[in-house]
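Quick one:
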Amino acid sequence: MSAPKIGTLYLVPAPLDFGCDAEVALTEVLPDGTLRQAAQLTHWICENAKSCRAYLKRIADLHPLALPLQQQQITELPREVHKKGDHGAKGSASFDARALLAPLLAGQDMGLASEAGMPAVADPGSSVVRAAHELGARVVPLVGPVSLLLALAASGLNGQNFAFVGYLPQDAAERAQRLRQLETLALKSGQAQLFIETPYRNAALWQALLQHLQPGTRLATAAGLTLAQAQVQSRSVAQWRALNPAPPDKHVPVVFALGQ
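Output:
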């Protein structure tokens, strides 16, 4: 008897409204094909089972699920992985995700879901994708919002040469040093630098940006992307200082970018 065909791992993007006061209609940000494929899956890997179920419930309002919500098999990534990453950098976890993909070897298709945006991009999940490749499984990214690319496209910064550098240090002195490093790289090479922060730390990061960056450096913020109240603003640091605006909302995810 031949072994069952290996299943497919689908990377299922989620709307960018996680943790926000308002929800966007799924049909406004996700193609119907993505939603239909997600509805057909019954085995999931995610950051948080509760938020994954909430997302599936929203999908079920549009397309019937292959199995009732209570019967969906949902597995969470270990907390160390989605908090510190798994690429061998300082403080990151070493994680072999192949054990999570046993259903693939039994012929079941699986979904990898993020809490917001595309799985494994500015988000945990790359360990699962690598493991699927190692097992010989097909990996299919579905179409949906990617906050980094939306922010970059709307910033006016260099979309031909850019880098996402994750989170900046929380320590004020280390953060200032890192900002100067990124600014030097951006001004010397033209490479736009993108980074994010936990929303409740938005104000501290914003103050550091205005304090430590050079007046001529261009600084962009993209907040609440895809929501009705979305705001993308891009100005020189000198212009920002002259306006003296309030810092970004501590409840809204923001992508920050700097460059020429």
